[in-house]
Amino acid sequence: PILAALEGLLAGDRLVRGNCDVPVPCGAVGWLSYDVARELETLPDAAVDDRGLPRLEVAVYDRFAAWEEPTDGDVPLRITACPRIGDPDSDSDFDPESAEEPTDVALESAYERGRDRTLVVAEAVRDADPGIGDPPVSSPEATFESDCGRETFADRVRRVKEHVRAGDTFQTNVSQRLVAPAAVHPV
């Protein structure tokens, strides 16, 4: 059901890029957990779900603020917008499900909505407080701790090797959770 939900979220959308050279000007942003693999194949439920995190976390954005990695010079901020033609909140009566081409009114309405929404982002960037505060931990180094310990992890690797030799599997993701305090700000 997770992959079907993602497909349903994206169904019917088509990006018309025009001359936009920002690689990803809008769209879905998020993540799929490793557990989504259980929708694709039958796997044992050996792992304990102690976090209760969703298998899919995604949102669709019609605006992005994008920039390239900083260099020695100025870093231009690019703000993009991808308004939907035939958006129910617009004053256009264009039906995106129809085979007809959008009317000039529908295109103009989409352009104005996109422009207005882009200006909102630009104003927020211009007027925002530039300070983000101190990171939660002020240390240049972090000590990572394993959730299972060295011996338990080594035992997991030994068991996987046995399964490989027996022909039960040829590839396995043996993992452990490493935890450390964040020495960087999350923003």
From TrEMBL:
Residue ranges, annotated region (Disordered): 83-102
Positions with biased composition (Acidic residues): 88-102
Anthranilate synthase component I N-terminal domain mapped to chain residues: 20-65
Reaction(s) catalysed by this chain's protein: chorismate + L-glutamine = anthranilate + pyruvate + L-glutamate + H(+)
EC number: 4.1.3.27
Pathway: Amino-acid biosynthesis
Enzyme class: lyase
InterPro entries referenced in this protein's UniProt entry, alphabetically: ADC_synthase, Anth_synth_I-like, Anth_synth_I_N
One family name in Pfam for this protein: Anth_synt_I_N
Gene Ontology molecular functions: anthranilate synthase activity
Family stated for the protein in its record: Belongs to the anthranilate synthase component I family.
Name of protein: anthranilate synthase
